[in-house]
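Good day; I would like, with your permission, to put a structural problem before you. A protein sequence and the structure tokens that stand for its backbone fold form the material at issue. I would ask you to consider whether the tokens describe a fold that such a sequence might reasonably adopt. I set the record out below, with my sincere thanks for your time.
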Amino acid sequence: MRKWKAVFLENHDIYIGTDPVPLSPSAHPKIYVNRFASETHCIYSIYNASDTIVSGIFLESDTKLEQVQELGRQADISTDDRNILGEIHPGEVMIVRRFIAGCTP
């Protein structure tokens, strides 16, 4: 909870922005994604609701992904131009910040 509070306070303008998207589409049926956006950043809260570790693509984007950073647990994530990839354990939340103007899913 302390880690999330620090992330929230550091990114307050994004979380309290005017463009939240609950349950944004994800690449896995048991991965739930909420998107929060400002003019320069997006934050994706990615939750694994399954009972197994999910590896691979979590999120597919319409636009090129350039700078992406995991904020919560410092997990290894990567991108392949239009996808956010990684590994997330059951019940775990991953918080990913994306630096871009005009953030879309």
